[in-house]
Amino acid sequence: MSMYTVICGSSMLWLHVVQPNLTAGHYGYIADEYERHVILRGVDVETEQRNIPADQDRPIDPLLYDGQCPSNINVYQEPPVCEIDYGKGMYNINDEWNSHNDFAQIRRWGFNVIRLCLSWSALEPTPGNYSEMYLQRVEQIVEWASEQQIYVILDMHEDLYSRYIFGDKEHEIPPYLTASDGQDGAPQWAVMTDDWPALAFFGIGNLNLAMMKAFDNFYNNSIPPNATQGNAPGPGLQDHYIGAIAFLAKKFVNNSAVLGYEIMNEPQPGTYIDQYTFSSNYLYPFYKRVIQAITGVRDNLPDCPKYAPTGINCSYPNLGINDKRHLFFVEPTSVRNLLDFTPQHSIPFSSYTNIVYAPHVYTHVFTIDSILHLNRSIYPPSFDYAYETALNESIGLQSAILVTEFGCGTDADETLLIPTIDSQDKAMISATIWPWKNNCFQKGCETSWSLYDSGTLNGTIANQNGPERPNRVRILSRVHPRGVIGQLKQYFYNTTTSSFIMTVNCINKTLLLLNNETIVYIPRRLNNSVINVTGEATLNKIIKNPDQSRLIIINPTCNGQYRVFVANNTNQIDKLYQQTVINNNSNSKSNNHHETIQSMQEAYELYQLLHTAAVKTGETFVATSSNFVNKFTALQNAVEINIKNIMPLLNKFLVITFEQRKESKIQRLEDRILAREQREQDLNVSTLQRENDKEIAEGRRMTDNLNAEQQRNMSLEQRQHELAIEQQRYDKQQEQRSEDIKLTTEQRMQDLKLAEQQRENDRMIAERKQAADDLNAEKERNVSREIEEYRYEQAKNKDLDALLLSHINDMGTLLENYNGSLTANPTIAALARAKTLHVIRSIGPERSTRLLQFLFDAGQLSYDQQTPLDLSGAILNRIDLSMNNDIISMRHVNFAGVHMNEATFAGQDLSNWNFTGASLNYANFTRTNCKGTIFDDSSMIQTDFSYSLLDDASFRRSQLAGASFINSSGERCTFYSATLPNSTFYQAKMGFYNFQSVDLTQANLEEAYMSGSTLAFATLVNAQMNGIYVLFANLSYANMFGAICSEDRCHLHDALSLLNAILPNGTNGTNGHRPMSLLQNGYAKCNSGGHKEDHLAAWSMPGDPISTKTDYHSENLCVFTPKKGGLSQDTNMTQRVNITMYDRLIKNGHAVVSLKAYRGQFTGIEMREIDGTGKVSPVLPSKRIIPAPEITIWETHLYRTTVQIEIKLMFQVSRTWAYAWFQYADLTIHLWLP
User: Fold this and answer.
1) Phi/psi-derived region of residue 248, left when phi > 0, alpha when psi is between -120 and 50, beta in every other case
2) Model confidence at 852, in pLDDT bands (50, 70, 90)?
């Protein structure tokens, strides 16, 4: 139990993620227990450790904050977070700026969430020892937030990996590099930089060399030196980090005030250049391990062994917390801050559904235009762009979205802060602004990022903060929805007019069964605003909170669309209703789509060049530093080597900037010309105005004279007017009498009509009553019928349960009598089979599941220990054997010949099951483990294997028309002679698959990975093949006529063989496709210019005794031959070839080496293989060819450890020159599959 005062636990609603559904028309979003769309708005509150030395950090002992607030010392970067009046109740706490009650102040702003930035170095100060005191401090802050009904995101915060990365400020630094410190995150014992210097390329913190190397070691789970494992789940850096998150999660597993866990702030890619590969191979697996450890979700994978918890194709060990209610917030790499889009694969990486995408948006603050001081109009194209790309990325991840950082200095409120918040509203994205408060006591603090002024400094102590910044209150304390019933279509708050509009579409009345209240928040500063609700909803009430804020409670009918308006007055609401509130155009000038894509590519290319140059600089420095006397010279050398490729593109951006400055100068000149013309126009207007004034004065004099004349004639006209009025009064009296007569007649007619209508109504009421009586009678009959049917169904179920139980007992008796086997005795096997098939036909799929479980538990379905019971012909259609049906995992099960159409196996481990000859049409195998499973000769029309693991599975001769293998993966799976027209292998990962003689007509193979697979004799007519990866694949004799395979996205010539293949354009693939020779200078060249010896550069020749010439024998051929005098002893030329590019083929035993040479009789050839340790493996004597015919072709398998091949040409001593020569040698690698 904590030592500080805790009043009560959390009473807040649990929130969860509703995943994106574009068919239903919505992105992913966060919802509450009543399925209301929740909008969260808040701030980032800091508790992480940044200062060096550590004793300058704010204290973490919760006792120092219990009813008090520690002194705000001038060295703190942020004031201590306090709540000195905690425990008095939500609205009974002083929320003024000088109250030392941070969370009451946060509630006053209208925020309902904070992102609490935590520190790994505080959680795990020494290896494997997690700090109970720091945990109690975090618990204290969560309780403070809970009292104010504010959710907390626990953020494992780091900036540039660790404060223990120290920039080199003592030595001279070469150009383009800047000394750069880390900021916060990892403890000192977890910093492993491999001696890379702490210098940033172009002053960009993301390109700090030491920081990049530290992240490499983190992603590789390197084991820190001299560090004990302690209470961590493993010895590596990631293991310690996961242990720290688990330490938090165990404390808050049942606390709904904790919204969830942000796994890592702004993760860096380290030295990994390819961001797409990095996300798939390092970042997502890291996130996945954290989620597996905390939630216990296994993702259909077996547990990793405890001695290697971060293994591949296994799930991180379950740490026993089993938290399946909290959200996990995952960020893209920090590269997104520079680009406003993330260059990484946005695909689901976990089966856990409560995942929230948490990018940071700093458009024109940290984007590449600002970092490199380029003109803002170059890139990004708009403020909306960052949120549009973020929404698309969240769809790919199948997650909700919450932007966990945005912000800027207060001098940019109008130009940066308002546009980015407007874009948030348009995109309907929740967000937290950085930061809440900070200390800044020097000149320039008036533009700091904080929501409050810094406190006043008195010596070394300052008060916690100054007053709120009024402009920030105007911008951030705004009207917004809190919980919305229905589909939120739009909402927008206009900062200028303080007006708000929200549009919601609700057609699902079942939502009203949970809760019928939509809630909109209005801050205290707008407590006089007018509210209007239109459409399919009514305004229920307006709750005025004690802090003068208001909650609008709206009751939708869910019959269609409804809108909510908030404005200063009714006229403004009318205008809002009439006009389009949210302009669909971007909030800043945007390029067309093509220009946007081009600028994206250029920005990413510029970053890639900077990143590559930084990585290469670090690598060059480490590799060459021993060659230089001092560090500066080594660094300067490394920079000069790697800076050359950056400058052209950077100069391109700078040229654009210059041209835009030139355009700006021209614009200013045009503005001056327009101003001069305006002054001349104003002068002309003044002259005309004076002339108009003279005409108006003359007109007034004439009017006065006319009025005097009219006054003289007034008396006569007045008398005539009175007579006319008398006549009009008499005429009106006559008209009134006529009208009274007419009304009396009409009243009598109306009374007659009403009497007739009453009689008709009475008749209709009588008819309706009769119809209602008839309906009630019919309902009673239906109820009686339903009761009878229910009773019949109950009796039937009872009989079926009895039949199932009886059969199980019968089988149990047979097992007892026949030594635990139903198949050892042929007669008993036939009897058990017949009875079981009969019972299966009778009891239906649900009970059949229980029967199969019994037979498996009794060892009668597995073929690994004894002959299984033959169930061929059994009707098990629509049976559910998925993980969701509480089926215990079964292995080596025999379902050969069984009918299981429309069956469900989703998520199940089907390793080594046998479905030979089975009927599995329309079955669901999504996310199953089919390792070693046999489907030979089966019918599997439109069966779904999406996201399944298919290692060593077999589908020989199966019918798979329309089947789906989207995102499936595996190696060595075979589809030999199978039929797969219209099937889908989109983004499937298929290494060394066998598709020989397979029908893939009109199949979708887009972005499929088929490295090392064979498609020999396959039919791929009209197949979709864009993005297919066929490196080392065998496409011999394949028919690809009409396939969709654009030249820029379909690199068929990467295949090992296209022998006699029909290409999409109808040509023969043999033409122009010849395996590349691995030898350099393998062909003799005599007349190509330059020195003849240049053509021998790749060969090693002791004594340089060999040259090229054309006067060999009687033919005019260019050949390699010894120089004169070169045959006094054996003369040779040797070349070693690196073949690590074929490493995967070689290690899997699928590589064949082919050697072809044209040479003289006394020229011998020898080939040797060399492994990774440098060991030379002698080639069998039969592989040494001396002597031989002029043309030699030879092939053999390579050893699995081979990394180099050595070719040696030997010219033997002879009496004639005619036979000591060779013209060429070809060395190629081929694919072999058994």
Assistant:
1) alpha
2) confident
Cis peptide before 380 (omega within 30 of 0): yes
Q: How confident is the model at residue 598 (pLDDT cuts 50, 70, 90)?
A: confident
- Sole residue written with tokens 């100069």: 651
Buried-state track 931-955, b at ≥16 Cβ within 10 A, e below 16: bbbbbbbbbbbebbbbbbbbbbbbb
pLDDT band at 9 (very low <50, low <70, confident <90, very high): very low
pLDDT in tens, 254-313: 999 999 999 999 999 999 988 889 999 999 999 999 999 999 999 999 999 888 888 888
The mean per-residue pLDDT over the stretch 627-653 comes to: 70
Residue 1183's pLDDT band, with cuts at 50, 70 and 90, is very low
Residues whose CB falls within 8 Å of the CB of residue 363, separated by 6 or more in sequence, listed in order:
340, 380, 383, 385, 386, 416, 419, 420
Q: How far is it, in rounded angstroms, from Cα 611 to Cα 613?
A: 5
Boundaries of CATH 3.20.20.80 in the chain? 15-159+242-477
Angle at 131 between CA 128 and CA 133, to 5 degrees: 170
Q: Which residues touch 925 (CB under 8 Å, ≥6 apart)?
A: 905, 906, 910, 943, 944, 945, 948
**What span, in angstroms and rounded, lies between the C-alpha atoms of 298 and 883?**
11
Residue 1132 pLDDT = 82
| Phi, psi for 943 (deg, rounded to 5) | -80, 145
Architecture of domain 15-159+242-477: Alpha-Beta Barrel (3.20)
Structural contact between residues 422 and 383, judged by C-beta atoms closer than 8 angstroms: yes
Buried b (16+ CB within 10 A) or exposed e, 451-483: bbbbbeeeeeebbbbbebbeebbebbbbbbbbb
Please tell me whether residue 340 adopts helix, strand or coil conformation. Answer: coil
125 or 1050: which leads in pLDDT? 125
**HSE-up of residue 1019 (Cα within 13 Å, Cβ side):** 14
3 state SS of 406:
coil
- State residue 1085's pLDDT score: 79
Residue 770, judged by CB atoms within 10 A of its CB (0-12, 13-18, 19+), counts as exposed
Nearest CA to 861 among 812, 913, 790, 897?
Answer: 913
pLDDT of the residue at 435: 93
Residue 1046: C-alpha distances to residues 627, 728, 776, 1006 (Å): 49, 92, 68, 11
Q: Would you state the pLDDT for residue 1232?
A: 63
In whole angstroms, what is the distance from residue 1028 CA to residue 1203 CA? 27
387, 383, 344: which is closest to 363 by C-alpha? 383
Could you tell me if 878 and 902 are in contact, meaning their C-beta atoms sit under 8 angstroms apart?
Answer: yes
- Which CA distances in Å does 1056 have to 165, 369, 756, 1152? 48, 44, 94, 11
- 999 three-class SS: strand
What are the pLDDT digits (tens) for 339-387?
Answer: 899 988 889 999 999 999 999 999 999 998 888 776 655 678 889 999 9
